[in-house]
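Today's session is about reading a structure prediction critically. Students often jump straight to the picture, but the first step is always the sequence itself: look for stretches that repeat, for charged clusters, for runs of hydrophobic residues. Only then move on to the predicted structure, which in these notes is written as discrete structure tokens rather than atom positions. Here is the chain we will use throughout the hour.
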Amino acid sequence: MTWLVRHTDYKKYRLFTDEQISGPFESWVHRHQFADENGKTKLTDHISYSIPGGDGVEFVTSWFLRVQLEEMFRYRHFITKWECKSK
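Below is the predicted structure for this chain, in token form.
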């Protein structure tokens, strides 16, 4: 699968946004926000997307897709945390 995104918004140490140029989704916007929380950094993901095929396909696949995305981000957050601790 080829997935091309562009960084469309950036605020140093606070956030950056990925917006799909081409890939598996009809549209995909992913904002990564970083905030100081009790001397640590909290990462929050905000995602807006739609899938090809419209509302009917999205209704049928939404549960499965949500589970897959949550699993993917759980893994990515684990790796990010591990990488930051090892530095």
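Discussion point for the tutorial: The first strand starts at residue 4 and ends at 11.
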